[in-house]
Specification:
5-stranded antiparallel β-sheet; globular; single chain; about 40% strand
């Protein structure tokens, strides 16, 4: 299990080996830079959205210039309140963000 600090959540976010395998298998374009991109996105996102699919999930996004022409990485984090826990369920690249309500955005 890997943990990444997330100042926005004021907590660490977990990445299990199973979820890391899932991302590597379904989104191999992220594999080379996966941990660095996850860490940077959670530490300093450009935007945080509430998931439109899962009530207890947020989509953290950040623009990266060096990821194969696609600009945004999205890290989907599920949170539970008691006991407090946050974990990554997936991550992917996209050209634009369209779903979910914006909860926070960099000025």
């Amino acid at each position: 299990m890997t943990q990444f600090p997330c100042p926005y959540l004021k907590a660490d976010v977990e990445l299990s080996q199973e979820r890391e395998r899932h991302i590597a298998e379904r989104h191999p374009e992220l594999l080379a830079e996966l941990r660095r991109c996850l860490a940077e996105t959670l530490a300093d996102p450009d935007q945080v959205r509430r998931s439109s699919r899962f009530v207890n999930a947020r989509l953290f996004s950040r623009c990266f210039e060096n990821l194969g022409g696609q600009k945004q990485i999205v890290v989907v984090v599920v949170s539970q309140l008691a006991p407090p826990r946050h974990w990554i369920i997936t991550s992917y690249l996209t050209r634009r963000l369209s779903s979910g309500e914006i909860e926070w955005a960099r000025n």
